[in-house]
Amino acid sequence: MHIHGAFTRRRAATASVTVALLLASCSSASDQTVRTPVAVQVTVNEFEIIATPAEFEAGETYTFTVTNEGAAEHEFMITEPMAHAGMDMGEMDEMALAVIPVEQLPPGATASVTVTMPDNASLEMACHIEGHYEQGMRRPIELS
Ligand SMILES: [Cu+2]
Question: Is 38-143 in CATH node 2.60.40.420?
Answer without folding.
Answer: yes
